[in-house]
Each structure stands twice: as C-alpha cells, then as structure tokens.
C-alpha cells in the first residue's frame, strides 16, 4: 500500500526578506487593513488589484510554491463549491441586487444563468479569495512569539496574546501528529485511498482523528501544567524575547495603512450602490 507524504503546512518560515524584517505590529495592521478594505467593497476594480498585490507579496516571501499549492487548490475548490450552492439556494440574488435580468442560458423553472447572477457570483468568489494570499503572507513571515508581542504592544492582555502564540505554534505539531498517526494506521491496514467506498473512508479517517484529539489534549495539559509551575499569569505585565523595534519604515507603512482604512470606510459610506456593475 502506498502512502502520500504530506509536505505542506501553515506556519512561520524563517527567511530573510523585507516582509520578514517588518515589525509584527505592522504586518498585523496590514492584515487588518486588507480585511477591512475587502469587507467594505464589492468593487472588482479594487478586488482584482488586491488579489494581484497579494500574490506578489506571497511570492516576495520566497516560500516555495509547492508549500502552499495544496492550500491554493483547496481554497479555490471550496469557493467554487460555495458559488454553486449560492446559485442553487438563491438563483435570482444577482438579478435583485443589480436591478436587471439578462438571461444567458435558461436551465429549468426559475433557474437560469443570467449575466447579473454570474457577475455577482464571480465578484463574491474573488472577494473571498482576495483574503487568502495576505493571510498566508502574514503566517509565513510572522513568528508566533513576535505576533504575540505585537498584540500585547497594541493593548491586548498578554495572557490572550500568549494563547494566540501557542495556537499558532501548535498548528505544525498537529499537522505532524496527523501525518504520523495516518502513516501508523495505514501500516495497520487502514485504507484511505479511493479504492474503498466513501463511507468506509470516512470511518477510517475517524480512526485517525480519535488518537489525534487525545494526543492534542495530552499535550495541552502538559503545556498548561508547565506554565502553572513557572508562575505564568501572576505578573501584570511581561517582556517578550522576540519583540522587534518599530522602524521608520514601519511607521511610514502604518501611516499609509491608516489612510487606506479611512478611504475604504469613506467610500463605503458615500457610495450609493453596493456593487460595481459595468453593464448596467
């Protein structure tokens, strides 16, 4: 029986790029600004450039494409399925939002592919996808401890910031445990390939998730006990080993991000139409 080695993951990659050298606060604010802009617009004239800039930044991290290729494919697949379900549940949503109906291909009953619905689904799908590259950029270039220090620096209690740091650092361990348990179960004859029926495959996956959950709980208990023994949480504040100095470049970027947020919110408040539709 052959096994497929898992070679991908979502975790910090220690490289020397200009993105890695930015302060964690700057990268966190970049991420928040990006999400704010995306959530306040349905304008493809903004969304498409955001995707292009995001992919450029993702390439600038110098992380090999094969490291996030499965994530890219998975995200595109999920968003495509989401578009199909949106059409099945509300086939006339695009027509109602854009105020017109231009039938491209009738299907049956009230179901018909219209120019407005197609444009609506493409806009929504690209809108969601535009958040994917910047999320990877943030994770690939920001060390969990540095991120926790950044959150604490902008006012978040250090206990919550440290919990976020532990979560991010724990993700690679969960992935590693999943792969090890999967290989161990496959060695015992548990088949996860397409050669078995779907329900059998789901049942076999449960044989992996069970041990994974219990091992995760054991590790969480060990970490909790270790933190208690070291007196974590007794002090009102703490210092951070990985905290970076905010440089002039960071300050300039923060100023630019603030301007972008103000412009995005202002555009959303003053615009009369939620969607940009060039064919109306």
TrEMBL record:
Q: What is its main location?
A: membrane
At the top level, the lineage of the source is Bacteria
Which Pfam families does this one have? Answer: CbiQ (PF02361)
| Cross-referenced InterPro entries | ABC/ECF_trnsptr_transmembrane
Localisation = Membrane
Question: Which range is the signal sequence, renumbered to this chain?
Answer: none
The membrane topology of this protein is:
Multi-pass membrane protein
Question: GO cellular component annotations, sorted alphabetically?
Answer: plasma membrane
Bilayer-crossing residues are 28-58, 70-90, 118-140, 252-270
Q: Does this entry carry the keyword Ribonucleoprotein?
A: no
Does the keyword Flavoprotein feature in the UniProt annotation? no
Keywords from the named record: Membrane, Transmembrane, Transmembrane helix
> What family is this?
Belongs to the CbiQ family.
Q: What is this protein called?
A: Energy-coupling factor transporter transmembrane protein EcfT
Organism, scientific name:
Aliivibrio finisterrensis
């Amino acid at each position: 029986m052959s096994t497929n080695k898992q070679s991908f993951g979502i975790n910090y990659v220690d490289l020397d790029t200009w993105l890695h050298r930015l302060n964690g606060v700057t990268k966190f604010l970049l991420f928040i600004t990006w999400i704010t802009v995306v959530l306040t617009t349905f304008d493809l004239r903004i969304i498409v450039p955001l995707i292009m800039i995001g992919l450029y930044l993702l390439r600038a991290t110098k992380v090999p494409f094969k490291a996030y290729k499965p994530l890219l494919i998975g995200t595109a697949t999920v968003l495509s399925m989401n578009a199909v379900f949106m059409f099945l549940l509300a086939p006339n949503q695009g027509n109602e939002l854009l105020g017109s109906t231009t039938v491209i291909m009738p299907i049956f009953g009230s179901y018909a592919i219209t120019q407005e619905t197609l444009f609506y689904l493409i806009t929504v799908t690209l809108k969601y996808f535009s958040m994917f590259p910047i999320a990877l950029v943030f994770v690939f270039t920001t060390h969990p401890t540095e991120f926790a220090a950044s959150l604490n620096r902008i006012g978040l209690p250090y206990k919550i910031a440290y919990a976020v740091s532990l979560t991010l650092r724990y993700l690679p361990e969960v992935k590693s445990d999943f792969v090890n348990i999967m290989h161990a179960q496959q060695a015992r004859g548990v088949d996860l390939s397409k050669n078995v029926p779907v329900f059998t495959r789901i049942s076999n996956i449960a044989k992996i998730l069970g041990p994974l959950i219990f091992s995760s709980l054991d590790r969480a208990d060990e970490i909790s006990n270790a933190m208690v023994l070291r007196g974590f949480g007794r002090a009102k504040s703490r210092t951070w080993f990985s905290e970076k100095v905010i440089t002039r470049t960071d300050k300039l970027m923060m100023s630019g991000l603030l301007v972008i947020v103000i412009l995005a919110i202002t555009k959303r408040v003053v615009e009369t139409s939620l969607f940009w539709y060039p064919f109306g």
